[in-house]
């Protein structure tokens, strides 16, 4: 008598409906948490950007019910406008000088606060003093510096006392000085952010690197250029690109100090776009200018993302 082994079934077990539904629910949970943020981004950012891009290709938008398609006419009008070209030039000077000064001042003060030559109490006092500009709002900063740089203000009084000038200078009303005056104010208001970020990066550099460099007989300058700067390079690049983006969008400080004047001497891309929309009521032209600013900002954002990926 021959015994045969029972046949084993090779068919897969039928899927349990309840288990598949629970797996699907677990996969959808992260999207549920993200959905409020995604909804806000779409409503508050994506939709307005799409609307502005649409407005830039039409004429008589918002002010008239029936607008007409204008193609690239608004972009041509903006790019050939002398005020826009002046604003583009002023913005380039404003952001480049501000970013460079922020970097130099921030690194200088950060290295001073990181120096072992200063005691703990002295460092705490200097930290409070250096971070004060960052605690003020733009409105307060604008009012303070308008009073300080007034022809009868403190700055002119000190310069006259030292014999550097003969009469008070109206820094914000002089076409040759206004741009440098608002740039100086922006530098004063923004360097603490660089200082704090670079100070944190300096404190993260291992002391072993400096000790090894000292054993090799290097001086302070060699350790700075061959140890400190290479270690700070990722932070410096990220901060510089971010500062270029933020400074290019500076509006409140310019508007509350000079309003873009005198004679377009401090006209920026932000103030030019604002005037086109809410002073001239040329919303189509303002939309075209806003799209151009968006494209320029996206170029800077591309380099920022690229630097982050390299890190």
UniProtKB/TrEMBL annotation:
Instruction: Name the GO cellular-component terms.
Output: plasma membrane
Membrane topology recorded in Swiss-Prot or TrEMBL: Multi-pass membrane protein
Alphabetical GO biological process terms: transmembrane transport
Where is this protein chiefly located? membrane
Q: Which residues cross the membrane?
A: 31-57, 93-113, 125-148, 177-202, 235-256, 283-305
Pfam families recorded for this chain? Answer: BPD_transp_1
SUPFAM superfamilies from the UniProt entry? MetI-like
* Alphabetical keyword list: Cell membrane, Membrane, Transmembrane, Transmembrane helix, Transport
Tell me where it resides.
Answer: Cell membrane
Please state every residue range assigned to the domain named ABC transmembrane type-1.
88-304
Family in the record: Belongs to the binding-protein-dependent transport system permease family.
Q: What's the protein name?
A: Sugar ABC transporter permease
Recorded source organism is Micromonospora craterilacus
Q: What is this organism's lineage?
A: Bacteria, Bacillati, Actinomycetota, Actinomycetes, Micromonosporales
